[in-house]
Amino acid sequence: MALLQTNNVVKRFGGLTAVNKMTFSVEAGKIVSIIGPNGAGKTTFFNTLTGIYTPEEGQIQFKDKSLLGLRPDQVAATGIARTFQNIRLFGSMTVLENILVGMHIQLKQGAVDTIFRSKKFNEEEKDAENRAKDLMEYVGLKNVGNELARNLPYGGQRRIEIARALAASPTLLLLDEPTAGMNPNESEDAIKLFRRIRDEKGITILMIEHDMRVVMGISEYISVMDYGEKIAEGSPAEIRADQRVIEAYLGRGAAVAHEQKV
Amino acid sequence: MNTFFSDLYKKANTGFWPVVIAFAFLVVGTISVYLNPRSLFAFLTLLTTPVILYFMKIDTKVKVFIGLLLLIVILPVLGIRNIFYLEVIFQMAVFSALALGLNIVIGMAGLLDLGYVAFYAVGAYAWAIFGSKQMSLLHSIPGAAPANAEFFLDARWFWLFIFLGVGLAALMGILLGLPVLRVKGDYLAIVTLGFGEVIRVLALNLDKPLNLTNGPQGITPIQRPPLPGVVQALGNALTPLVGHVPTEAEIYNVFFYFLALIIIGIAIVVATRLEDSRIGRAWTAIREDETAAIAMGIPLVKMKLAAFAAGASFAGAMGAVYAANRTFVSPETFSFQVSIGVLTMVILGGLGSIPGVIFGASAVTLLNIQILQNFSLYLSDLRQSDAVIPIINFPWKNLSNQLDPAKYQKLVFGLILILMMIFRPSGLIPAARRQRELGDEKEAE
Amino acid sequence: MKQIAANPVYKFLLFPVGQIILFALGASVILSLVTVLLAYLFKSNFIDFDLVERIMLILPQVIINGLTIGFVYSTIALGYTMVYGVLEFINFSHSEIFMVGGIVGIQLMAYFEHTGALATMNEYLVIALAIVLALIVSGSLAVIVERTAYKPLRGAPKLVPLISAIGMSFFLQDLVRLILSLTTGEFNVILPKFGTYDEFWKLAVPGMEDPLRIQIKSALIVGIAILMLVILNFLVNGTKVGKAIRAVAQDRPSASLMGINVNQIISITFLIGGALGGAAGVLFALKATKLDPFSGFFPGLKAFTSAVLGGIGNLTGALLGGLVLGLLESFAASYLGIFTNGAFGAEYKDIFAFAILIVVLIFRPSGLLGQTVGQKA
């Protein structure tokens, strides 16, 4: 059984069907990508998975449990963490605090512990702080824990967002265009980081990505969306050869030209 | 010019100079207030001491020593010599607690609550109704109290009502929050404003069918807690310092001053600890970006309710203390203007900044009940005199009696709010995130 | 059919007036029916008097009062809703813009009284002059407020301009008080007595003992308000500026790319909204006969509630919301006391609006007519 399984998920906005009958699955321990042209419904699909939108039809199963009707915070509690297309850090908090916010679900301190600074509270905070430091190091950030998140350069902010998502110790990590705006070197580093996350931490990764080098270099399985529907899926090699994918990306005429060239 | 002053400040802020300056303000302030109990300038000099303590580099132990000396010895003694100062400090403490509470709601969690005074009213009316004869007057018309009415509860119940005030206000916060926290941010402001007005109008009109609040006339007398002998003894001990045997009223004022001080102390500790914890971080996260916060597993409504309840509880406790201090409450005390006043304090000091809002509360309170008042007195003195305004040759005598700065609090609040938003939205003492000792030692390993 | 719809007389006069009359009649009839039905249901609880009869006796007057105040609310609410449509911002100080209009109008009449001209002038001319002055003063004030306190904050987090607007509201209240105090030594302003508009028309209604009494003033307020609404409808839907306002409301960046001067349009929106508020102030002053610098607060809040009730950003909604709220308030003020046997009465009418606001926001946050920005009035 797949870790994440969706069946015929439909999400409409008024007359517009943004996601249409998406049947899709992610096997545990894999790195899976969703690609597709702008406006294909990829981010909307992500938002449907994480409970920001409620689908009009279909099922979403995660670890054999339905996610339908759960609020985003409840979805997060089942072990799905995410990053955002346009980085959404808590700008006026420090880097360390951003990562601590990521641990919200795991921390058990209550109001009474907090106000009386109980032993449990102190130990938990110390422990959380240490874990946060480890995570910062893991994503390759040093000596920035006390910086305000908004003062970090772009690449650093992307890394913090990943560290913040990892702080929740998720089973499934959703990355929404994680290398957008990066130069080739940075993308290369990011790919290495994602591999390590999967190999060392055993976290399944589902990502939306535009950069074909990244997608083809890292994905073990790829789904292609266009106009809200899944038009193809398979291994990177299969996707590269798929006629419909080329059409979706380049338009029909270009696809024909492409074929002739090949 | 600018560098001259900043260089001067740097020089003054090194070595032993800060301690000398702090002590100088403390001693000069104390002596001048002692000798001239009516001088506003002397009082302001004394009140500069804590600001210096906060900003300058002084050893923490020395800071605590000077601070405690000021709060525990000097102010009570001076306060008995001029009871008005004790009143000023008491109000500063009351409003600091309110500002700290509102700061949790708006500064930390980013929810604009314009009806905050309602929670203050709940705490005050709780003790007012049960700590007075009101429960025996439920069936009589306001103003026509039978002479044989009895106090409903013993005055010692007051202590319980401080905690009840906390609980009731928190409960009201949750009851209000449950329906309204789902509405969009800027609507929340209007809805909470409405809630504040609802509570005031209820206080105004619940003299029928049952006379619960005694309507616009308000409830009086409200009991004060009996003071045990220790406090009397303390009063006697103060006699040589003050120069006369303190009256019961004066001792009560000192007592309420200390009570407010304790509550504000607890409020500071609670607010600081909440801020630096999972709960406080969740509030800040919600303020910064709700979508990201909820994706991190933070339940929005639950955490917002918690912010409402925590903020309200501070006001509830102070409400009960206020009712006992005044022995009188009326709906007028809980107007919309007070809510905006507390908002002004928070904005002036700095949203989310605990030292900031205490500074803001103190400054606005001082401005309200002392500086504007003194200005009014000064103007009325001028009106009595034959002086003229130079250049335009306008005799002060002809100045309208209506020009009474003490009555223009709204103008002051409004100006502060607008100017702060345009020029310094993060306040005079902006919030700073906690700096931690981090990984440097890790690298050394 | 299409030809009729395109006819300007129909589009800018008959249709909006018809719509207004429909809303007014519809809301009145529905509320009356509900009240009478309730009266029949609870009739048996009242033995001293006939509940239904007592309710019917004052019903016409209750409806007239409700419509009068309802039209005033509608006119103010349009200012809130226009600014919200364009900026997504609650202009908290609009209640003071409204109050200033009322006070300026009264001051003009007081000036005429002072010079002795009031006794000889045509009373309707006096009112018209007061309204024109209020339009100008309130409109300009709204633009000044926008330029000084809101424009520098555009792009800041949402709470920042809102807090500035709250500050402006307080500032204006006391500023007006200061100016009035320094110039007249008194900050209550009282409408001078003149003309005959305070008197009643008596209409004999078949089947009723007493004739129906309609105060000329009420008819005047309703009439002027309808005139304002029709003019606004023309401004928004029939002119180039109106088109630009609707464009900015729908999509500010695109409007800007199309060459529309967004800052100018925002100022014009404040100008129109403020002018309407000022006119409403004079109408309110005719009804209240006494104003002070703080009397904008409650009407302002109720007008805001009206805007939300109708669907904020929606001009037609503001009109409907104001009428419904005015009627509800009038019904509550008159009948709550009767139904509860005096336990709760008119003293709760000011908070009645808040209850409605909370209920609307919880159950139908998009309001009665939904959130269609930049629609016709």
Describe this structure as you would to a colleague.
The complex is a heterotrimer of chains A (262), B (445) and C (377). With 262 residues, chain A is of the alpha/beta class. Chain A has eleven helices and ten strands. The mean pLDDT of chain A is 91. In chain B, helix 11 crosses helix 13 (300-326). Chain B has a two-stranded antiparallel ribbon. Chain B is mainly α and 445 residues long. Chain B is 68% helix and 1% strand. Chain C has 377 residues and is mainly α. At the B-C interface, helix 8, helix 14 and helix 16 of B face helix 6, helix 11 and helix 13 of C.
Assembly state (oligomeric): heterotrimer
What is the element string of chain B, with H for helices and E for strands?
Answer: HHHHHHHHHHHHHHHEEHH
Question: How many structural units, i.e. domains of chain A?
Answer: 2
Strand content of chain A: 15-25%
Radius of gyration of chain A: 20 Å
Number of DSSP helical runs of chain A: 11
Helix/sheet category of chain A: alpha/beta
Number of helices of chain B: 17
Largest sheet, spatial ordering of strands of chain B: 1-2
How would you sum up the global shape of chain B?
globular
Q: What would you report as the Rg of chain B, rounded to the nearest angstrom? A: 24 Å
Helix content of chain B: 55-70%
Main sheet characteristics of chain A: 6 strands, mixed
- End-to-end Cα distance of chain A: 38 Å
In total, the number of strands of chain A is 10
| Strand arrangement, major sheet of chain A | 6-7-8-3-9-10
